C-alpha cells in the first residue's frame, strides 16, 4: 500500500482508533514531521495527526531557505548559526534533490549605515567591508566540512552582471556567499513520507480536541476529530508530543493544566513576481539593510522570484494575512536598492505566515532567537517550540532524546545520515529520470521542476504520463506543473482538497497570475476522478477555492487591480 495515498487515510484512521502507540505527534508541519520520522526510525510505534493539511501552517510560508542565517551573526547568536549550518550540510547530503546550494550577492554601498545589522558603523563607513568579510569567514568556518562553498569578495561589475537591476550609484563592491534553497512544503512531505515508510501512521484533517489521562494524572491519549467526516475517536499513546507551532499554547491549554509554553508569533509576508521584473539570474540578492534593521531577500524561483520578508506583530493565527502596509514595505525596499520601479501591479501573489518564536519579554520580535526549546510538562506532554525549518531534524532529535531517556532507551541519532524519500540512489536516478522524461517529450523546465521537487519519486509521475499522455500536459501554460502531479498528489501525498493541490502539492496558487482560480475546475475534475467526488462536492471545492483567493486579494488591497 502506498504509504501516503489518499485512499490509505481511511485505513490509517482505523488504526489510529484501534492500535496502541508509543508516540502521538500533534502537528504535521516540519517540526511534527521531523519528530515522527526520528521516533519511527528509532523503532517507536508512531502516530501523527494534523488538523488541516500537512505544512498548511508556517511550514508552507517560509522564505524556503536552508541557511545558517547571516543576520544572526551581528547578534552574536553563534550557537544558533553553527547549529543551523551543520543542519544545512546534513540536509544537502540527505535530500540533495530538494535542498540545493544557492549563491547570494550581498552588496556594499558607500552610504551604508548598518548593513546586515552590524552593531556599529565605523566613521565614513570605512572598515564595513572588513567587518562583513570577517563575519562571512566565520560563517564558512562554522559550517565545517559540510560547507556549501566559500564566500568571496566581488567587484561592482561582477555584482551587476549577476543582478543587473542592482542600483549602481554608490556600489563599492559585494560579497558572493552560499546557502541553500528548498521547497518547504515538499520538504515536509518528504519527511512525512519517509516516516510513513518507517511505519508511522499519519493523517491530515485530524484535530486533537482533548486528552485522556491515566489514574496517575499522566496523559495517555488524545481525543481526535476527523475534520472531513466529523467522527471523533481516541488515540492511545504513551508519549504525547506537542509540535503545533504557533498553536502550541492552544494545544497545551486543552490539558487544562498549568501553562509552560509561551510563543511570540511574528508575522512575515512574501511577494511573488515574474523573475524578469527583478532581473535576477540564478543568484539571489540580499537587500542589505531595512528601516527596521533587518535584511531582505530577492530569490529566484523558476520563472518567478520571491521577495521577503517582514517581521511584525501578531493577528489571527488561523488566517495570516498580508496587509497593504506589509506589501508597501517590501516594494519600498526593493525600489530603494534596485532599478526596477516595482509596483502592486507586478505582484502575482502574496503569502503570509507566523513564526513560532519562543517568547522573551525583553526582546523585540525581530531580535528574538530562532532557537528551539523542548519543554516537559508535569502531565507528561513534551512540547517542542521555536526553531527554524533548517533545524527541524535537530529539534526532532532533541525531542525524541527526551522520551528515549524516559524509557531508558539508548540515545542514538539515526537521522543524521538518513536519506529522505526520493534521495536514495539519487546520483544515478537523475540521469535515468532525465532520459525517461525526454523520451516522453517533456521540456527541460518540467524535468528540472520534477527532479527538484520529487527526486527519485519523479519516476512515478513520469509513469503516469506514459500511461496517459494527456497527463503530460501543463496545468498552467507558463508553469512547469503537469496534470500527472494532481493524480500523484492524490495517490501518493494524501491530497484531500483542491487547495491542497493548488497551494501546497504544487505552488500554482503562488506562481500563477490568477492564483489558480482559472484552472480550479480543470484540477478539481482530475481530483474528482481519483477521489470519487460527486458533482456537488466538485463544485463546492471550486467555489471554496475561488472564495479563498478572492478573500486574500481583498485583504491585500489588490482585488480592485484584478477586476
Ligand atoms: P507549523 O508548520 O505551523 O506546524 C504546526 C501544525 O500543527 C500546523 O499545521 C497546525 O495545523 C497543526 N495543529 C495545530 N493545532 C493542532 C491540533 N489541535 N491538532 C492537530 N494539529 C494541530 N525557517 C528557515 O529555516 N528558513 C527560512 O527561510 C525561513 N523563513 C521563514 C519566513 C517566514 C515569514 C516565517 C513565518 C518563518 C520562516 N522560517 C524559516 C521558520 C520556519 O518556517 C518555521 O520555524 C517552521 O515552519 C515551523 O514549523 P512547525 O512545524 O513548528 O509549525
3D structure, described in words:
- With 563 residues, this protein is α/β, with parallel strands linked by helices.
- The chain has three domains: 8-59 and 185-262 and 368-417, FAD/NAD(P)-binding domain, CATH 3.50.50; 99-181 and 264-362, 2-Layer Sandwich (D-Amino Acid Oxidase, Chain A, domain 2), CATH 3.30.9.10; 426-562, Alpha-glycerophosphate oxidase, cap domain (Helicase, Ruva Protein, domain 3).
- Helices cover 37% and strands 21% of the residues.
- It contains 19 helices and 17 strands.
- Strands 3, 4, 5, 6, 11, 12, 13, 14 and 15 form a nine-stranded mixed β-sheet that branches. Strands 1, 2, 7, 8, 9, 10, 16 and 17 form an eight-stranded mixed β-sheet that branches.
- Helix 2 runs parallel beside helix 6 and helix 14 (483-492) runs parallel beside helix 17 (520-531).
- The radius of gyration is 23 Å and the shape is globular.
- Mean pLDDT is 94; it is low at 361-365.
- Flavin-adenine dinucleotide (FAD) is lined by residues 26-32, 49-52, 56-59, 61-65, 67, 207-208, 243-247, 251, 268, 309, 353-356, 387-390.
| Count of helix runs | 19
Largest sheet: 9 strands, mixed
Structural class: alpha/beta
Alpha-carbon distance between the two ends = 46 Å
Please report which band the strand proportion falls in: under 5%, 5-15%, 15-25%, 25-35%, 35-45% or over 45%. 15-25%
> And the CATH topology of the largest domain?
D-Amino Acid Oxidase, Chain A, domain 2
Overall mean pLDDT: 94
CATH superfamily grouping of the largest domain: D-Amino Acid Oxidase, subunit A, domain 2
Taken from the alpha-carbon principal axes, the silhouette is: globular
Q: Over all CA atoms, what is the radius of gyration?
A: 23 Å
Ligands: flavin-adenine dinucleotide
Kindly give the count of domains. Answer: 3
Architecture per CATH nomenclature, i.e. the level-2 architecture of the largest domain: 2-Layer Sandwich
Instruction: Just give the CATH class of the largest domain.
Output: Alpha Beta
Unreliably modeled segments: 361-365
Count of beta strands: 17
The level of helicity is 25-40%
Amino acid at each position: 500500500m502506498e504509504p501516503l495515498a489518499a485512499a490509505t487515510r481511511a485505513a490509517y484512521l482505523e488504526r489510529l482508533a484501534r492500535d496502541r502507540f508509543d508516540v502521538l505527534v500533534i502537528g504535521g508541519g516540519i517540526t511534527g514531521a521531523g519528530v515522527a520520522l526520528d521516533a519511527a526510525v528509532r523503532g517507536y510505534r508512531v502516530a501523527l495527526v494534523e488538523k488541516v493539511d500537512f505544512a498548511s501552517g508556517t511550514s508552507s510560508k517560509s522564505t524556503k531557505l536552508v541557511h545558517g542565517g547571516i543576520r544572526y551573526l551581528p547578534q552574536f547568536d553563534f550557537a544558533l548559526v553553527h547549529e543551523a549550518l551543520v543542519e544545512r550540510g546534513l540536509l544537502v547530503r540527505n535530500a540533495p534533490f530538494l535542498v540545493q546550494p544557492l549563491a547570494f550577492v550581498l552588496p556594499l554601498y558607500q552610504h551604508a549605515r548598518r548593513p546586515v545589522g552590524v552593531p556599529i558603523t565605523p566613521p565614513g563607513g570605512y572598515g564595513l567591508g572588513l567587518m562583513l568579510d570577517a563575519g562571512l569567514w566565520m560563517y564558512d568556518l562554522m559550517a565545517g566540512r559540510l560547507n556549501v562553498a566559500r564566500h568571496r569578495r566581488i567587484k561592482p561589475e561582477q555584482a551587476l552582471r549577476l543582478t543587473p537591476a542592482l542600483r549602481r550609484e554608490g556600489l563599492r563592491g559585494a560579497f558572493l556567499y552560499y546557502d541553500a534553497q528548498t521547497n518547504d512544503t515538499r520538504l515536509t512531505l518528504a519527511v512525512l513520507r519517509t516516516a510513513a515508510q518507517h511505519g508511522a501512521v499519519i493523517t491530515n484533517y485530524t484535530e486533537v480536541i482533548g486528552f485522556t489521562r491515566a489514574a496517575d494524572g499522566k496523559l495517555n491519549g488524545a481525543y481526535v476529530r476527523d475534520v472531513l467526516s466529523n467522527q471523533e475517536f481516541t488515540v492511545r499513546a504513551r508519549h504525547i508530543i506537542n509540535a503545533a507551532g504557533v498553536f502550541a499554547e492552544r494545544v497545551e491549554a486543552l490539558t487544562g493544566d498549568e501553562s509552560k509554553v509561551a510563543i511570540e508569533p511574528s508575522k512575515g509576508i512574501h511577494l511573488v513576481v515574474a523573475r524578469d521584473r527583478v532581473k535576477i539570474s540564478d543568484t539571489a540578492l540580499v537587500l542589505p539593510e531595512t528601516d527596521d534593521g533587518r535584511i531582505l531577500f530577492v530569490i529566484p524561483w523558476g520563472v518567478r522570484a520571491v521577495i521577503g520578508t517582514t517581521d511584525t506583530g501578531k493577528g489571527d493565527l488561523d488566517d495570516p494575512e498580508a496587509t497593504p502596509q506589509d506589501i508597501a514595505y517590501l516594494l519600498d525596499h526593493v525600489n530603494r536598492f534596485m532599478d526596477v520601479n516595482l509596483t502592486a501591479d507586478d505582484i502575482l501573489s502574496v503569502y503570509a505566515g507566523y513564526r513560532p518564536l519562543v517568547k522573551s519579554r525583553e526582546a523585540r520580535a525581530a531580535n528574538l532567537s530562532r532557537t528551539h526549546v523542548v519543554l516537559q510538562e508535569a502531565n507528561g506532554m513534551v512540547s517542542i517550540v521555536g526553531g527554524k525549518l533548517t533545524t527541524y531534524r535537530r529539534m526532532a532529535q532533541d525531542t525524541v532524546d527526551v522520551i528515549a531517556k524516559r524509557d531508558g532507551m539508548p540515545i542514538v541519532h539515526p537521522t543524521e545520515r538518513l536519506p529522505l524519500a526520493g534521495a536514495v540512489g539519487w546520483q544515478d536516478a537523475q540521469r535515468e529520470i532525465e532520459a525517461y522524461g525526454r523520451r516522453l517529450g517533456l521540456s527541460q523546465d518540467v524535468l528540472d521542476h520534477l527532479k527538484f521537487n520529487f527526486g527519485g519519486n519523479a519516476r512515478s509521475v513520469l509513469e503516469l504520463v506514459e500511461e496517459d499522455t494527456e497527463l503530460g500536459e501543463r496545468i498552467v501554460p507558463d508553469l512547469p506543473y503537469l496534470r500527472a502531479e494532481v493524480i500523484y498528489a492524490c495517490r501518493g501525498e494524501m491530497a484531500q482538497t483542491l487547495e491542497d493541490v493548488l497551494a501546497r502539492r504544487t505552488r500554482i496558487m503562488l506562481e500563477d497570475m490568477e492564483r489558480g482560480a482559472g484552472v480550479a475546475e480543470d484540477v478539481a475534475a482530475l481530483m474528482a476522478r481519483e477521489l470519487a467526488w460527486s458533482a456537488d462536492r466538485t463544485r463546492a471545492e471550486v467555489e471554496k477555492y475561488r472564495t479563498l483567493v478572492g478573500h486574500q486579494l481583498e485583504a491585500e488591497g489588490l482585488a480592485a487591480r484584478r477586476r
